[in-house]
Design a protein that fits this description.
By secondary structure, this protein is mostly helical. It has five helices and no strands.
Amino acid sequence: MNDSFCNNVLNQLGQRLRQARLVREDTQADFAFRIGVSIPTLRKMETGSPQVSIGTWVNALDILGCISDMDKLIAPKESLAERFEIQQKYAGRQRVKRSR
């Protein structure tokens, strides 16, 4: 991915954050206080700055009730067929007890 694409994604994320804040009718000062950052940091988030830490984004998503969406970002890619194969591979195995 190139920098232009990444910047575009961050800009869109920032716009969605701003929109969610406005829907809640929160001022920048109120929302910044809730997520534990300064107003300038919130402005950076809303403009798509890559300088904002992931922890700050997690706090913001938690306040907005979207924290469960974070799990989808890098969820393991596992098909049902792969899961079935793994289960079949280990289904016949039994643990052997060692005598002491």
